[in-house]
Amino acid sequence: MKSIQELSLHPKTTSFFNDLSKKNFINNEWVLADCDEVSEVINPANEEVIATIPISSSEDVNKAVEAAKRALYAYEWRKILPTDRERLLYKMADLIEENADHIAEVITLENGKPFAEARKSEVLGAAKTFRYYAGWCSKIEGETFNISIAQPHSKQNFAFTRREPIGVVAAVIPWNTPFSIAAWKLAPALAAGCTVVLKPSGETPLNSLVLGELIAEAGFPAGVVNIILGNGSTTGNALVSHPGIDKVTFTGSTTTGKAIGKAAIDAITGISLELGGKSPAVVFEDADLDWASQCVTQGIFRNMGQICVSGSRVYIQEKVYDKVMTDITHRAQKMKIGHGFEDNVDLGPMVCKSHLDTVTNYITVGNEEGATLISGGKKIKDKGYFLEPAIFSTTDNNLRVVQEEIFGPVLVGVPFKTIEEAIKLANQTNYGLSSTVFTKDVSKSMRMVDELEAGWVWINSNARSDPHFPLGGFKQSGIGKELGKEGLYAFTKTKAVNIVY
Ligand code: NAD
Prior knowledge:
This protein has helices at 11-18, 58-74, 82-98, 100-111, 115-136, 178-191, 206-218, 232-240, 254-267, 289-301, 321-334, 353-369, 400-403, 419-427, 442-451, 484-489; strands at residues 23-26, 29-32, 38-43, 48-54, 144-145, 157-165, 168-172, 195-199, 225-227, 247-251, 270-274, 279-283, 311-317, 372-375, 379-380, 386-387, 390-393, 410-416, 431-432, 436-438, 458-459, 474-475, 478-479, 492-500.
């Protein structure tokens, strides 16, 4: 792949890369970080260093939180008219669409995913999320209550609740779909009247800087959104444990989520955790098998398997097991692997060297555990973190490759005989994020809906997000929901009021 200077990029992308130095976005301004430590952002398609970012210190974090507090209380963002918030969110959606090529290029350069996918699912998806939540700003409601508290002298109660913004939000996000997830947190938090400090992942911080530019251009008051760059242990930790934070909304691994959850409980801070998954796909023999194979292949390998809801375990009814596994294998082998700006590319590189090593280590583990590697699993190309999609087959549901989240292009097939067995195998996991089922039988699909222990159940389709459709896991996959009305109300606190008159 060509270097950044040789690529013909959008003029805004070129000037963006010409003007990057150690900066955070605080009070709508680019502020130099007060730290000595830096880290490199690497293009995973050619291993070129494309930027250096600060590992912001607790002092930097403090400045961002103070700015968010001032915007909320002193400048009263929490009290601005809902229709004014709505206008800003619509403007943001428009700006994201206008800058779609530029944003998608930045995502492809730092994350590696194909440009077309970055543009469609991440950037246009984020615009859709801002537009969806713009409509909610003026529709946040409380309730009235007929309470039975006796009052003297024939006085009466007027009891009601109202939803108030929860306050200053710390939003900590991962690298796999960074622009979408930033929108999933920012749009509802802003719609609810909160202010935000966003900390993107150290692997993919640059698209959040473009987001900051658009926040300022849209006209959000200073301090309403602040973006702080850095790693997890220094910057992220300082943010989630800052006493000025009222709510932490975190998306990332279950291990990090647990640590953040403990810190939040100590501080009695609100918390939502969107964590890892090891989601099952179940294919019954009566399904449209061609469609099921297509969906299972896309469901695991899209974004190189770096999607939380990826169907990474496929349970296939015994009679059709060989046929479906063969079909999935052929489809996977036909996927075009290349850098994100190549034409018709399906799969880009893994996000970074350490993640490539983690995933290839799991392929070794699968082989050592006795699973049969049917296809793929080899590193390819001299430069860049490219990996062939890997497909295993086993009858042992307890293997590590079946139980642990790999977060890469690794699918494990397991045969089953009966629906009872399928339910048992699918639920035999610590996770509970998503699940997909393929069958033409409505009764069978409803039985699966009843029995599957997962926050999402998709029948005859891949799992795909929509702003109006709540996403959030059961079991070790998280606490709380993102998106939809629940995702909005997660950024509010309920005040119960009784007026005696
Ligand atoms: P990660 O947990 O390593 O990091 C996520 C974010 O947390 C990053 O910004 C990181 O810098 C920060 N962080 C790390 N340690 C921290 C600490 N001690 N305090 C505060 N912040 C800290 O996850 P990742 O590798 O970036 O992302 C992959 C994981 O995200 C996978 O497990 C995947 O399933 C999960 N994920 C879940 C969803 C969902 O909706 N449930 C969506 C996308 C990704």
